[in-house]
C-alpha cells in the first residue's frame, strides 16, 4: 500500500446505530475508546510485569512481586478500596533443564526440545530410558493394554486441527493428551509420557501447561516436545524402534501463601451488584506470561483507570480481580468465590480476559441463571452499539478463574480477541512483551470498559 | 489460559446459514478453507520472496528476480497460461545512508533516525544545513508564506490519529504531509522537508513511502524521521531554534523495463468475464516487503493453487496478476489496464490484497457501474456464507493497482484484514517475513478464494 489513498472509512460512534435514545451511549462508548487509545496505561504496566518482574509462577518470589506491583498500581487510581485476598497455592518447580534424548536411531543420538509439563514429577537425578510407543488418542491406551504399554514411554502425537477457525476449538480438541495423558498411561504401567506441543505451528518451541494425576495413580514424568520434534520422532518410529532417555527433576514443593489482588469502585445506587473484570496474575515459569495472562491483568486494571479518568460514577460496584494460580491449581479463583459466597455477595456479571492481548472480536457469555435466555436477549440488544468496534456476543464458556462464580447465577463473560496467534506463544519461552501490540491491547481495555458501562447502566433484568 | 476447558466453539460451514439451497456453497467454502489451511503454499513462497530475494524496489535486480520466481511458481500449477506483461518503471535509488543531524541544541549534536522518501531528490554530496520550522498541516504553509519558510527546513509533524479504529483512516488523515509536503514547501522557498513517520506507534523506526513533486516545482529533499525523533525535535523547537544538517544522495535513475506477472485459468462458459486477484510484487528498498505486499502476491497466487488442488473448473476466467511498481509509480497497474482496454477485456471483478497478511475481516467494494446498488445488494446476500469466517462486505476503496480498471465498470474489491499492526511495519526495515503469521496469511487466501468462488458461480447481474 503506497500512495495516499483515503479509503472512505468513516468515523464510528455517534452514528453507529439508528436508535436516537442510545446516541448518548454511543457517544460515551466512543469516549471510552478515545481515552483507552490515548491515555491507556496497560502497555507500560505490562512492560513492567514482563520485563522488570518476569515469569510469575505461583509460589515464586516473582509472583509475590507481581502481587505487590499491581496492588501499588491500583493504589494510584483513587479507587474506593484496594486489598489483597489470601489464598494457598501449589508451588511447582521445574528443576534442572530437562533432557529428552533419542539414544539411538538411524540419525544417531540427539536431544529433543522439551519442557516438563506443569505439576508433573520428574524422573529424578538418574533419569530413565525406554522404548517409545506413539498413540494419537487417550482411548488407544485401553486397546493397547498393559502388555504393550508397561515399561514404555508413551508419545501422544495428535496435532491440533488446523482447519478450526478458532484455535481454542483446536486446543480443546487436543489438550486432553497434555492434561490426562500421564495419568492414563500410568495406569497401564508406562514409565513416562511425551506430548506433542499444543500449537498448530511447526516449530522448535516446546510448550508447557498443566498435567494432572488422577487420584491413586502413580505419578510418572510428563514432558511436552516441540511440534518439529514430534514430527521427527513420529517419522523415526515408522521405520524402527526408538529408545529415549529422559531426565528431569521437576517436583511439587507444597503449598505456599499467596494472594489475589483486588480493587474496586463502589456503586452509588446498587453497590451490592458487583461487576467483575479480571485476569490471572500467575504465569508459567518460561517466557514472561505476556499474553497469558499479563495482558488480561493490565486490561482489567486499565478498565478502572479509564473509568476514573472519565470521572465515571458507577451505580453498581466495579471490581477488578487479579487471580493467582490459574495455571496450575485455580486456587485463587476458588478462594475468591468461597469468600464471596460466604459474604453473600452477588456478581451480576464477571468478565475474564485470558485469551491474549489481540484485536478484540467480542465476548462469549454463559450463565446458570434460569432466566439467561431473557438476559442474553437483552445483551444482544446492545450489539448495535458495539458492532462499529468489530465486537459481537455469542454463547460460550467464559474463563477459568470466574468459573467458580457460576453458582451465584450472574452472567459470566469471556473476552474474545482474535485467536490466530495465541497458540504460537501460549505456555512457551516466547510469550514475551514484544509479541503484544499496544493498540490491540488497548482495544481490549476499551471493549471491556464499554461492556462494563452497559452492564452498569442497564443491569441485567 | 491453562486448563483443558472446551469453550463450546462449533464447527462452522455446513450449518453456517439456513438457506438449504446454499448448503452446497457452504460446504464448498468449508473445503476451500480446509485446503488453504492445510495445503496452502503462500507461507513458503513468502519466505522465499522475503529471505531469498529480499527487497524488491522497481527497477532493481531483486524486482527482476521476483518476477522470474513468481512466474516459475505459477508455471508449476498447471494453469492455462502464464505470461509476463512488459511495463516501464521508474528506478529510484536511495543512495548513501541518510544523515539528518541536529547540529546544535541544548542536547548537543546528534543524528535522527531517517529515511529519504521515495522518488525524492537528495541534497547531493555536500548536504545542506538550515533552521527547522514545524508545521502540522499543508495549509499552514500559505499563512506562514515565503517570508517565514524560504531557506528553512519544514518539519511536518501531524501524528496519525490513534483514536481511529481503522488505522487506514488514520493514515489517510496524515499522509498528505508525506505525499505533498516537499512539493508544497518548495513553492515557498523551503530547502528540504522532514516528515513524521506514518504510524501511531512511538518508536525509533523511520518510515519511507512515496513523495511527489508537482509539475514545475523545484525538487527539494524529503525525509521521514521516526516518531520518537519527531517528538524530540518538536520538544526542542518549543525551547529554542534548532538547526539541522541533512545529507542524502537519493535520486531518480530513469525508466527501466520490468513486468507484471500473470497466470490464469480460462473459464469454461464465460471466459470473457475475468475475475482478477492480485497484489503488487515491488516493495520499498528497506525491509523485505513482507506485509507490503509480498503477502498479497502469495495469497493471490495461492488462490489459483487452492482452486487447482480442488480441481475447480471455473465458468469464468480466474486471473492472478502480480503488479509491478505500485509503490512509486503505479506503472504496472496502468500498463495492465491499458492492455486490457485495448483488448476490449471485461473484468467482472478484481480483488486486490494490499493491506497486509493479517486476520481477514472482509472486503471493501466499489464500482463505477450505474447498477452497482443492485450488484452490491447481491454481494451482501452472500454475507451469511462468509459470516462464520468473520468476513463482511462494506463499501469503500479497493486497491491502487486495480484502480485503473474502474472504467471497465466491473466491481473492485479490497481485501480487508485486521488493520491494527499494519502501520507498525509499513515501509520500514522491519517489514520482514517473521512478522507474518502463517495462519493469518492462509486465512486471507481462503477468504479471497471463497469470494472468487461466489463471483464465478453466480456472476454479478
UniProtKB/TrEMBL annotation, chains A, B:
The keyword Translocase does not apply. It comes from the Bacteria. GO terms for cellular component: extracellular region; lysosome. Keywords: Carboxypeptidase, Endoplasmic reticulum, Glycoprotein, Golgi apparatus, Hydrolase, Lysosome, Metal-binding, Metalloprotease, Protease, Secreted, Signal, Zinc, Zymogen. Its main location: endoplasmic reticulum. One of its GO terms (molecular function) is carboxypeptidase activity. Residues 260-443 form the Peptidase M28 domain. GO terms for biological process: proteolysis. InterPro entries: CPQ, Peptidase_M28. The keyword Heme does not apply. Homodimer. The monomeric form is inactive while the homodimer is active. This is Carboxypeptidase Q.
